[in-house]
Specification:
Layout lengths: L2 H10 L3 E9 L3 E9 L11 E2 L17 E9 L10 E3 L6 E4 L6 E6 L15 E4 L12 E4 L9 E5 L2 E4 L7 E6 L8 E5 L22 E2 L5 E2 L8 E4 L15 E6 L2 E6 L5 E6 L20 H4 L3 E10 L5 E6 L1 H4 L6 E5 L5 E5 L3 E3 L8 E10 L2 E10 L10 E6 L2 E6 L11 E8 L18 E6 L8 E4 L4 E6 L17 E9 L5 E9 L8 E5 L12 E5 L8 E10 L3 E10 L2 E2 L2 E2 L1 E6 L13 E5 L6 E3 L11 E4 L16 E2 L4 E2 L12 E11 L6 E9 L10 E9 L7 E10 L3 E2 L13 E3 L7 E2 L2 E6 L2 E7 L8 E8 L6 E4 L4 E2 L5 E16 L2 E3 L3 E9 L3 E8 L6 E2 L4 E12 L10 H9 L4 H10 L3 E5 L1 E6 L2 E5 L5 E7 L4 E9 L5 E5 L18 E5 L4 E9 L5 E7 L1
Parallel strand pairs: 32-34, 36-41, 45-59, 67-69
Antiparallel strand pairs: 1-2, 2-8, 3-13, 4-5, 4-7, 6-9, 7-12, 8-9, 10-11, 12-13, 14-15, 16-17, 17-18, 18-19, 19-20, 20-21, 20-27, 21-24, 22-23, 23-25, 25-26, 26-29, 27-28, 30-33, 31-32, 33-38, 34-37, 35-38, 36-37, 39-40, 41-42, 42-43, 43-44, 46-52, 47-48, 48-49, 49-50, 50-64, 51-63, 52-62, ...
């Protein structure tokens, strides 16, 4: 059926809501909510007045004989869940929960509604008060709700209460917020949630495909992933700390379902809490990056006793008191192995055990913490390092809250023999308990099968230490050449998930493999056709530093397993090229094995698999004031006979912010979280959040909070890395520069390696109109001085700063020169907003030539910024080939330009001007113009882009789509016939599912070199 008509029908059908609210003496609220009708669509995050409120349907479809309801009443001040989940087997039943109506409360209701293609019951929900309110408030107060069959929209068939709807619509969750506000306003807030359902008895021919969900051959439906299936790990008081900073070292794990905090200085105590209430009351994966969304971790966790003991048969016990990270005051002894959207994996080294008589046990004991969104696992591995054997029956015991486990050793436990121990698995959701027995085994009702290459049955088993099903393949027998070469092939593995139970679930899964090339690899999950992306995220964690393990990739995901279903995916690893263009990847790279003094969060980006292109030391675990570390070039070499597909150099170092407090102490990032929105292969996107301060801790320590977005793209000319930075100032800070260069003030910096023999003979600055000035840097420029200070980049943006002729002395690898394109610059200081970028140039060292950093500064004359001030900067870092003979990539337009103007600022102007795109959108709205990010209109049958300009492969991301099966077509201009080429431009697209809004995004990379204007249409 026509999709446009379907979308119109969805918008036309609405649900009504009525409120009745009375407030007496700021103490009690009389609440009445009645919902009617069934089908509706609502804009996300929209606040509507109650007179015109429209609501979407609920989100959970259960067995047709069962009703579910979830009434959650929470105090907004304490975020405390006051009402339990209700399970109504009889539609005529009512459920009562006590409510403290003396506070402003959130009331969230989940009801049983329809799911596309499923049988369901509809119901009307009423929430009202039961009883009267006395003047003194002594009467009981309660909330009740009743169920019944409600009215339906367009109905194809209806037998009894089992009803099939046409058109099918996506489920929505409704959050009702009622209470006293300033001015007496009351509103309704909307957010989306996952949809789950049971199969319909039969399907109507020609029914609209619910493309936003995964459909099985049997008709079962399930969302690609749930919005609350996410995780973070972070150090709230910072990884990098000043020597005088005595704040305790807490390692925190936060998911959509729980929070866990471990104290490195005291392993006997932990803090823990589950995040109850209805799912939409929980902040999202991106929400919790914000410092304003951290109260549930800072204040909402409850202290728990953590018992980790080695028990002897005679009754004597040794308890873990501390770990090396605490005793040495160095976070490097808590080693980060894996981090990403789903899984955080830390190994806490060398726990110390002491008995009640204060004697210490000679042993080596390491604790590994693996956190999934709905569970976590504590694994203790112990080696006897004493002079004598431990007697038979020596036990390892762990206990936290309601969970406990004990391992009893058989026979003597001799010194320096193999390590032994146990895993404590903690499932925080009641329905998960019991599906996996302690100590491992299979997940009840779930079976996985994996095959690839000459391995028809890859070994799969459940590992309690990873709290998931694990598959490993060390040396796949590939048909293509691996290593540093032009890899255009993919690794492809068949992965079948079968669920024989009657409960839908997400199966935790990890695949560890020796990749064909570890520096550039992206795992993606495709449909069984091996072409269509599912939109299911796959976490990318890897390591090439550990000699014992060798280079490996760990691909984590939560596989959707609808009830009574079987589904086969193609787990695909993309390397050098995705389609015809080099792929883009952004991975968490473990440093375990590289340097025992680091082991923190390291982020590595690559275009292709020819070495790194951009790295971040997000927690400063390996550097000091170099958030940006390795920067390299794409497809350049030292000369025509030099090796292709190899590592390169393009200058080391950079940073996001440099400032000091009023006592002139450097500000350091703390509480750093990372959200991996997309790890490739067309356009990566990872967001970071935290705060800058001289010390850890809340309150006065927080000087500047920040949110940043980092992206890189699939292209074939040169590397571009996008940095979008937002700083909010809470206390006074200084951006002062000292004469000796030991303190520098900046909002962004390029350069930072004192040890690198880098020479920058020229500096060019310009704007959208052309060159402003090119400066020759004296060869004898003095180190640790400013070559130029506070240069205003006048004229229209985008502005640009580059170092043509930059080279690294004695470097044998291929080289490129670095540059910045500043897309926007907005700084508010002292109530005034400034939009003209200011740049200073600092001579870092002079080892055979001047090595100059570029500092993007606050506005001219502004050195002090304070509470209420802000800065927002969008820029991207590029590495440009010196001459045509150094570039071996396939982009003919770039090669021709380099032949005409080698090693020139004109290459930078070509980029800045050419990718200052003018984008007109029909059927949506442009959120960003480079990269192009479009929000499609609800119900739009197609989205059209008319673009002026373009250099290289331009990313085009279309958001808000109702499925991932859209294709992009080249269109002729409106002045011609406005028709599309019948063949899609490229099947190598990236699909991402947005579980918050039940929508998909689709990303393409289109070469626009040589096209003054072009038109494109996205449609199914």
């Amino acid at each position: 059926k026509n999709k446009r008509n379907v979308s119109e029908k969805r918008r036309e059908t609405r649900e009504d809501i009525s409120f009745s609210t009375q407030v007496r003496e700021n103490r009690s609220t009389l609440l009445s909510i009645t919902t009617r009708t069934v089908i509706a669509m609502a804009d996300e995050d929209e606040i509507l007045p109650i007179e015109s409120a429209t609501l979407g349907p609920g989100v959970t479809a259960g067995d047709p004989a069962v009703f579910y309801a979830d009434a959650t009443v929470r105090s907004t001040s304490g975020n405390k869940r006051l009402a339990p989940r209700a399970f109504l087997e009889d539609p005529s039943e009512s459920t009562y929960v006590d409510v403290d109506l003396g506070k402003v409360c959130d009331v969230s209701v989940v009801t049983v509604w329809h799911v596309p293609g499923c049988q369901y019951y509809s119901q009307t929900v009423e929430i009202s008060t039961d009883g009267t309110f006395g003047e003194s408030g002594e009467d009981d107060h309660a909330v009740s709700w009743t169920t019944g069959v409600g009215e339906l929209g367009p109905v194809e068939t209806a037998e009894g209460n089992a009803i099939k709807i046409d058109p099918p619509v996506r489920g929505r969750f409704v959050r009702h917020r009622c209470g006293k506000r300033e001015g007496g306003a009351t509103g309704v807030h909307f957010r989306g949630l996952e949809v789950r359902g049971t199969p319909a008895a039969e399907e109507e021919e020609g029914e609209v495909e619910p493309s936003s969900l995964l459909r099985e051959e049997e008709g079962t439906i399930m969302a690609p992933w749930s919005a609350n299936n996410y995780g973070h790990a972070y150090w709230p008081n910072g990884w990098r700390k000043r020597k005088e900073d005595k704040t305790q070292d807490f390692l925190c794990f936060e998911t959509g379902y729980y929070g866990l905090e471990l104290n490195m200085d005291n392993m006997r105590k932990a803090r823990f809490a589950t995040f109850g209430g209805s799912d939409v009351a929980r902040p999202s994966y991106l929400d919790v990056l914000d410092m304003d969304q951290r109260s549930r971790m800072d204040d909402g966790l409850q202290e728990q006793e953590l018992i980790i003991e080695i028990q002897q048969p005679d009754g004597k016990s040794y308890r873990a008191m501390r770990c090396l990270a605490g005793s040495k005051n160095n976070r490097c002894h808590a080693r980060l192995w894996d981090a990403g959207r789903f899984v955080q994996n830390y190994e806490i080294l060398e726990l110390s055990f002491r008995s009640d008589d204060r004697s210490w046990l000679a042993c080596k004991a390491d604790l590994t913490v693996v956190s999934w969104p709905r569970s976590f696992s504590l694994t203790l591995k112990v080696t006897n390092t004493g002079p004598e054997a431990w007697v038979e029956g020596t036990a390892v015991h762990m206990e936290l809250g309601q969970w406990s486990t004990t391992y009893v050793n058989k026979g003597e436990w001799r010194p320096k023999t193999r390590e032994r121990g146990t895993s404590l698995e903690c499932h925080v959701e009641a329905e998960d308990e019991g599906r996996v027995a302690q100590g491992g085994g299979e997940i009840e009702g779930i079976s996985l099968k994996m095959s690839g290459y000459e391995t028809p049955d890859v070994k799969l088993w459940y590992r309690p230490d990873f709290a998931c099903c694990v598959a490993k393949l060390k040396f796949p027998k590939r048909a293509f050449k691996a290593g540093y070469t032009q890899i255009c092939d993919y690794d492809v593995f068949d992965l079948t998930v079968e669920n024989t139970s009657e409960e839908s679930t997400y199966v935790p899964f990890m695949f560890q493999v020796r990749p064909a090339n570890v520096t550039g690899v992206v795992p993606i999950l495709l449909q069984s056709d091996g072409v269509t992306p599912t939109g299911i995220p796959v976490q990318l964690s890897k390591n090439w530093h550990n000699k014992e393990m060798g280079a490996y990739v760990r691909a984590y995901c939560l596989l959707p397993a609808p009830a009574s279903s079987s589904r086969t995916f193609k787990l695909t690893f993309v390397y050098g090229f995705y389609g015809t263009l080099p792929s883009a990847s952004h991975a968490q790279l473990s440093l375990v094995g590289w340097n025992d003094k680091t082991n923190g969060r390291w982020e590595q980006m690559a275009i292709g698999c020819f070495g790194e292109t951009h790295c971040l030391d997000a927690e400063l675990s390996g550097t000091w004031h170099n958030m940006i570390t390795d920067v390299r070039a794409l497809m350049v070499r030292a000369g025509p006979r030099d090796k292709k597909w190899a590592w390169t150099s393009a200058g080391w170092g950079g940073d996001w912010l440099g400032a000091i407090d009023m006592e002139r102490r450097d500000l350091i990032p703390h509480g750093v979280k990372a959200a991996y929105v997309s790890q490739g292969p067309c356009l990566t996107e990872v967001k970071y959040g935290g705060y800058y301060g001289a010390f850890g801790g809340a309150g006065r320590a927080k000087r500047i909070s920040y949110l940043s977005t980092v992206r890189t793209l699939r292209t074939d000319d040169y590397a571009r890395t996008f940095h979008s930075l937002q700083f909010a100032f809470h206390r006074h800070v200084l951006f002062a520069n000292t004469e000796d260069g030991k303190q520098l003030g900046y909002l962004f910096r390029t350069g930072g390696a004192n040890w690198e023999k880098l020479v920058t003979p020229r500096i060019a600055v310009g704007n959208a109109e052309g060159l402003i000035e090119e400066y020759e840097v004296p060869s004898d420029a003095t180190a640790n001085t400013f070559f130029m200070e506070d240069v205003e980049l006048s004229g229209p943006g985008p502005w640009w700063v580059g170092f043509p002729g930059m080279n690294i002395r004695e470097e044998t690898k291929g080289q490129a020169w670095r540059a910045l394109v500043i897309q926007s610059y907005q700084v508010t200081a002292g109530g005034e907003t400034h939009g003209t970028p200011v740049v200073s140039f600092f001579v870092r060292n002079n080892d055979g030539g001047p090595n100059v950093d570029a500092l993007l500064r606050p506005p001219k004359g502004v050195e002090l910024m304070g509470k209420g001030d802000a800065a927002s900067i969008d820029l991207y870092w590029i590495t440009l080939p010196h001459k045509a003979g150094h570039y071996y990539g396939p982009n003919a337009a770039l090669r021709a330009h380099l032949e005409e103007t080698p090693d020139s600022w004109e290459t930078l102007l070509r980029e800045a001007r050419g990718n200052d795109l003018k984008v007109e959108v029909t059927g949506g709205e442009a959120k960003e113009t480079y990269p192009i990010i479009v929000q499609s209109s609800a119900g739009a049958a197609e989205v059209r882009l008319d673009i002026t300009g373009g250099v290289g492969a331009v990313p085009m991301r279309f958001e808000g789509l109702d499925g991932g099966t859209y294709q992009l077509y080249k269109a002729s201009s409106e002045e011609e016939d406005g028709q599309c080429d019948p063949t899609p431009v490229d099947s190598s697209r990236q699909v991402t599912y947005d579980a918050e809004n039940f929508t998909f995004s689709v990303t393409y990379n289109i070469l626009l070199d040589g096209q003054d204007s072009s038109s494109w249409v996205l449609k199914k």
